[in-house]
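FAQ

Q: What does a record look like?
A: Structure on top, sequence underneath. For example:
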């Protein structure tokens, strides 16, 4: 978070450090084994303020706020699963996946999603996106 140039990065970093400190002193968690299990951002309250306009009129400006919730968890010593046969042990070890079976009527002709080619030059771009 300290290397991000975004406005909210400093607030998120501050609240994560605060949550870590509270977990250490209130729940007696080990900071070496601690990790963020869940991070959630939701809508908060609105602050209203007056927006003065011409001819003595005014409008209301709603300034939105957000709330952040974190769930910190401790890693436990886990036993590695043991495969029943050589194929399962190879898959659990993170080796190469097994070759795909040939299923009648099912062939993958093209990729489902193709990333954009960053080397392709943009010629005469529009001032807006065409989604």
């Amino acid at each position: 978070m300290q290397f991000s140039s975004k406005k909210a990065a400093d607030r998120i970093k501050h609240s994560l450090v605060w949550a870590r400190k509270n977990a250490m002193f209130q729940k007696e968690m080990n900071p070496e084994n601690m990790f963020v299990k869940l991070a959630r951002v939701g809508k908060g309250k609105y602050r209203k303020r007056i927006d003065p306009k011409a001819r003595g009129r005014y409008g209301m400006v709603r300034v939105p706020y957000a709330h952040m919730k974190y769930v910190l968890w401790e890693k436990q010593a886990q036993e590695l699963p043991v495969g029943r046969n050589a194929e399962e042990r190879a898959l659990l070890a993170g080796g190469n996946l097994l070759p795909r079976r040939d299923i009648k009527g099912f062939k993958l002709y093209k990729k489902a999603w193709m990333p954009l080619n960053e080397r392709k030059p943009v010629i005469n771009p529009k001032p807006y996106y065409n989604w």
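Q: Is there anything notable about this one?
A: The helical segments are 7-26, 86-92.
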